[in-house]
């Protein structure tokens, strides 16, 4: 495993480059196919509204997959992730308006741990609301 | 109705092996818009110290969630799947999942709770490769929302 960032070069509070990830209905259909999660709340507006949602919502696992990219793009080696966990706090609502939604992700080093690992705390928001809670990754640096 | 506490600690038989395909990894990486060459270029993956292309960190959920279906759909447990939402998800990796892996999942119910009418089930999925080596552990919290009062 060859992370490009050195353990010695980071300190608690080091900020990772923030990223924004667009999500449209097409994104969700692709993700459904790739992940095998065909729950209609992620692509069928009529169904989503019938079960009390405001509109089609993104897969939580899609949002989780985007959020970790702030870490994997930073380290350069996606295989350097040792632990990763999130709480799904609010759905990402994806309107069928040609624009969809945007997930904004920021991360910073929250703790330096043993064995060249650090804990990164992530924040993910969409339309001004926090969509993931307790979003943390432990990653091994060079 | 509160779920049966006696299910805590129950372990289900390992799933049949899932063979991780390189084109499936590519499809997943494209679906999440991730252009890292570690997912598609064997030489780039090798340069990072991996024997072959690796899968994005959350890829394995497709396999562990299918395995968790054994628990979710266990008629004896009686979870109302139509009301289930995904609460939390966590992974601990021994190594990344990679192309050619043949992975089995052993699911265990870690906790069963009822809170404010919601039924909550914590499932741990232990993922092993063909050699029996541990690859990743996935913890999935499922919440069956309380049915509305009639």
From TrEMBL, chain A:
One of its GO terms (biological process) is fatty acid biosynthetic process. This is Dehydratase. Residues 13-123 form the MaoC-like domain. PANTHER family: (3R)-HYDROXYACYL-ACP DEHYDRATASE SUBUNIT HADB, 3-HYDROXYACYL-THIOESTER DEHYDRATASE HTDX-RELATED. It holds the Pfam family MaoC_dehydratas. Belongs to the enoyl-CoA hydratase/isomerase family. SUPFAM superfamilies: Thioesterase/thiol ester dehydrase-isomerase. One of its GO terms (cellular component) is fatty acid synthase complex. One of its GO terms (molecular function) is fatty acid synthase activity. It comes from Streptomyces hawaiiensis.
Automatic annotation (TrEMBL), chain B:
One of its GO terms (molecular function) is (3R)-hydroxyacyl-[acyl-carrier-protein] dehydratase activity. GO terms for biological process: fatty acid biosynthetic process. This is UPF0336 protein CEB94_24510. The lineage of its organism: Bacteria, Bacillati, Actinomycetota, Actinomycetes, Kitasatosporales. Belongs to the UPF0336 family. It holds the Pfam family FAS1_DH_region. Residues 6-137 form the FAS1-like dehydratase domain.
